[in-house]
Amino acid sequence: MTNRVALVTGAMGGLGTAICRAFAKDGYKVVAAYHPELDKPEEWLAEMRADGFNDFITVAADVSDYESSRAMVAEAEAKAGPIDILVNNAGITRDRFFPKMGRDMWDAVMSTNLNSVFNVTQQVSSKMAARGWGRIINISSVNGVKGQAGQTNYSAAKAGILGFTKALAQELVTKGVTVNAIAPGYISTKMVMAIRDDVRQGIIDGIPMKRFGKPEEIGALCSYLSSDLAGYMTGATLNINGGLHMY
Amino acid sequence: MQKVALVTGGMGGLGEAICIKFAALGYKVVATYSPSNSKAQEWLRSMNSMGYGFKAYPCDVVSFDSCKACVEQIVKELGPIDVLVNNAGITRDMTFKKMTKDDWDAVIHTNLDSVFNMTKQVVDGMVERNWGRIINISSVNGQKGAFGQTNYAAAKAGMHGFTKSLALEVAKKGVTVNTISPGYIGTKMVRAIPQEVLDSKILPQIPMSRLGKPEEVAGLVAYLSSQEAAFVNGANISINGGQHMY
């Protein structure tokens, strides 16, 4: 079981890093997929090594591109073996109120946040089914569940992930492969911590728990969902948001 | 410090698996059971013989006073309760047309009022100590409804309303309140259903074509009780083999 291979997209971001570390602690072989232009793999790997994580395997892809995703997964399999766990975590924001949102901003978010889930998952799901075991974990967002002004694109893509999750869960349900979504609230990643102080305080005030989530808390939930004991859970959306949204 | 976990209905199929999981994680485990349960000592002996040092206390979860007295005794003997799992429940299935007020009352009292009765005894202490976990065991049928279960579905859906409101009230205090909604789990109760009914009526509703295992629900309880689940609050977590997605 500890020979399992986990592939995480957007692995070098705040959430991705925490997920990679959680999997490493579980004894999985971890493949970290990064963007060839936006990420700095050598710096990231050095940081990880400094914290005692020496075994991460890295692969580059633009997950908004099908061919690039295909090549990336092939490389990941060549380096690490068949993928048992996939976390679709790569994502971007292009926030703007709808009247001012350019079609390019819509397309960028759809391509990176939603089409990427198709692009990468299709490379691994049938093989997981053939082997009779797999975990697909899609990182959505509280804003995909409840909507957010200024994020018509992001909310649409993240809600779209939930539809995809439920449909694919049904297709794979008898094959030992579960498909679930995590909808995090505000997590203290670099992206969130870069928000202007007064705005950030306003966000915290709106969270019943009066704090941001920690990336490690998302890592732990991925770790649970990847476990054998989570095998009866599929098509679920797991909310982890400090009480920000309940339904 | 060894944490104390209290599981109501601790001797039922789900409750037992939850107790065993907590024990494996090093908790001090307390099961409460209905005073009318004549097999309680037998259960305790059999658990003890397997090496589980569970404590068990009779408690009528329908009665506020019984819950109060029971929890006071537990706290005195074992220490404050860190994790409460409201798991006790019954069914009185009947179409609404034929359902009597008694059938309604019994289910609402045992499945929903009990959550008030038990939670009330522990939540203030959790808030004072700035740490606590309250886990309410609801049901897929509380989410989607089920023929012949107006009482059960109402009680189980009601639980999650309670969960969300209390979660908001205690969110700043290190206490989380969450709901688990299991689908059909292979407890003794469900396994007692005739095989042909399982095969023809129940399994076809479950995309995964199998019952869940009590251990799988216990695994989720363990996750929610952990330090790492501290940001999960007011959530309703489905574990149902794909039976209901929303």
Please describe what this structure looks like.
By secondary structure, chain A is α/β, with parallel strands linked by helices. Chain A has one domain: 3-Layer(aba) Sandwich (Rossmann fold). Chain A has helices at residues 14-25, 41-50, 66-80, 103-131, 142-146, 152-171, 190-193, 197-206, 215-226; strands spanning 5-8, 29-34, 57-60, 85-88, 134-139, 177-184, 237-240. Chain A has a seven-stranded parallel beta sheet, with helices on both faces. In chain A, helix 3 (66-80) packs parallel to helix 4. The radius of gyration of chain A is 17 Å and the shape is globular. The N and C termini of chain A lie far apart (35 Å). In chain A, 54% of the residues are buried. In chain B, strand 1 (4-8), helix 1 and strand 2 form a beta-alpha-beta unit. A seven-stranded parallel beta sheet of chain B has the order 3-2-1-4-5-6-7, sandwiched between helices. The model of chain B has no long low-confidence stretch (mean pLDDT 95). Chain B has one domain (4-239): NAD(P)-binding Rossmann-like Domain (Rossmann fold), CATH 3.40.50. Chain B has helices spanning 13-24, 40-49, 64-78, 101-129, 140-144, 150-170, 188-191, 195-202, 214-225; strands spanning 4-8, 28-33, 55-58, 83-86, 132-137, 175-182, 236-239. The longest helix of chain B is centred in the middle third of the chain and has 29 residues, at 101-129. Chain B contains nine helices and seven strands, in the order E-H-E-H-E-H-E-H-E-H-H-E-H-H-H-E. With 246 residues, chain B is α/β, with parallel strands linked by helices. Classes of the chains: A alpha/beta (247), B alpha/beta (246).
Considering the chains and any ligands shown, give keywords for the structure.
heterodimer; A: 247 residues; Rossmann fold; 9 helices; globular; B: 246 residues; alpha/beta; seven-stranded parallel sheet; 7 strands; 15% strand
SSE blueprint and pairings:
The complex is a heterodimer of chains A (247) and B (246).
Chain A: E1 5-8, H1 14-25, E2 29-34, H2 41-50, E3 57-60, H3 66-80, E4 85-88, H4 103-131, E5 134-139, H5 142-146, H6 152-171, E6 177-184, H7 190-193, H8 197-206, H9 215-226, E7 237-240
Parallel strand pairs in A: 1-2, 1-4, 2-3, 4-5, 5-6, 6-7
Helix pairs in contact in A: 1-9, 3-4, 4-6
Chain B: E1 4-8, H1 13-24, E2 28-33, H2 40-49, E3 55-58, H3 64-78, E4 83-86, H4 101-129, E5 132-137, H5 140-144, H6 150-170, E6 175-182, H7 188-191, H8 195-202, H9 214-225, E7 236-239
